[in-house]
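Hi, here's the filled form for the chain we discussed.

Project: internal
Contact: R.S.
Residues: 329
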Amino acid sequence: MKRAAKVLRGGGLVAFPTETVYGLGANALDAKAVAKIFKAKGRPSDNPIIVHVSNLKQLRDIVKGIPQSAKPLMRRYWPGPLTLIFRKAQKVPDEVTAGLPTVAVRMPSHPVALALIDEAGVPVAAPSANLSGRPSPTTAEHVIEDLNGRVEVIIDSGSTDIGVESTVLDITKSPFTILRPGGVSLESLSQHTQVRLHPKLKDMEMEADEIPESPGMKYRHYAPKAKLIVLKGAKEKISNAIKELVHQFRLQGLRVGVLAPFSGRYGANVTITCDGDKLRFANILFKALRKFDEEQVDIILVAGVKAAGIGRAIMNRLEKAAVYKVIEL
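And the returned structure, exactly as it came back:
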């Protein structure tokens, strides 16, 4: 841990676990260090990065103020998978915020992440530790697969707990606005404050020159190498449609993968299911997409879930990975 913290203070990159996915960290107050993140990932420079803190002093150093209305959310969800967007302090480099006047901040709950940030003594800018556009990494092996040789230190702490990224909530807007669904649901937040979903959650609604207010709002994300198709509707209709599509694609000589939150026999080359548990589905989502790449499938068929609770984050990731190739049944 001391070595990794020293690398961060010295302007290097460290991949580390959080409760959501693995992050690729740099000293958030060092513009040159943050620039290395973009180079390592091949990340577009207009895509802002979330800053991770281990204590409220670090937060106060990088924001202009903490609104009273945000404090109940911080008490309820920090440390945890909720990112809040504040007005930024002048010391935060534009490289972190893509030139925006705001900064996205969260306090992770993973003990390794907290210990690393605390030991480094600096806030840590960290997007997911993968090549830009690829499925997010939920194990150190995924990080090595994408970034081996591009990062000084990779901390291995096994699989992450949640499996999808944090919820991003803009508290500079009224009402508070979800820019990216994630580990904290809209339903849960609504119990504590007035909140809405941003109308431009889908990147196909963003202009090419428009700077996203949050990571995950623009560009193709979370995508495997194979073409991905999402099917939405009643369970029986989805199952029947998947079986028919698998049959058609295999007749064409294609290798087919199926991912579903319920069990079934589909005749695919690779089938991954998790028996109806949406939390489990979220946990295995990115791991499954990487497994399909490993198995060199040509087409991935995914059964969608109801966009409520963690299901909203699941569908957000799937639709972006599919570039909105969605079949409504």
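Let me know if anything looks off before we file it.
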